[in-house]
Write a structure and sequence with these properties.
The protein has six helices and five strands. It is an alpha/beta fold. It has a single domain (2-131), classed as 3-Layer(aba) Sandwich (Rossmann fold). It has a five-stranded parallel beta sheet with strand order 3-2-1-4-5.
């Protein structure tokens, strides 16, 4: 099975895996599953780190892709089609542009999104599969 992980899930996998649900942790650690993180997550982390809104445990954001690869998390690139059709994602209460783009990517790639973010569940009616 293939999964896309949300930004906070990547950080928890790397630094605080006790915050993951048992179900999420099992899916991520299952060697038969393919786990992806969006390149949007790296941009979000880098931006928030640069603004001083996020601290990382002893590393800088540029090290995160390497750390993700060490635990078999691959990077999912964003396509021209995904960014050019992003306007089609309905505007609900969830305003975070990073989360919305990750949601759109999960819908377009038909990947379940591993996330604890409750507002994203509103997008299930538009094809988002949420896994937690």
């Amino acid at each position: 099975m293939k999964y896309l992980i949300d930004t906070h899930v990547l950080l928890w996998v790397l630094f605080e895996d006790e915050k993951l649900s048992k179900k999420a942790k099992a899916a991520i650690k299952n060697p038969h599953n393919e786990i992806y993180v969006s390149m949007i997550s790296y941009w979000e982390i880098s931006l928030k780190y640069g603004l001083g809104k996020l601290t990382l445990k002893g590393i800088t954001p540029d090290i995160l892709p390497e750390k993700a690869k060490e635990i078999d998390v691959d990077t999912l690139t964003i396509t021209e089609e995904e960014v050019s059709t992003f306007y089609q994602l309905p505007k609900l209460n969830h305003k975070d542009p990073f989360d919305r783009l990750i949601i759109w990517q999960a819908i377009n790639k038909n990947l379940p999104l591993i996330s604890r973010d409750k507002p994203i569940k509103d997008y299930q009616q538009f094809g988002l599969k949420v896994f937690w």
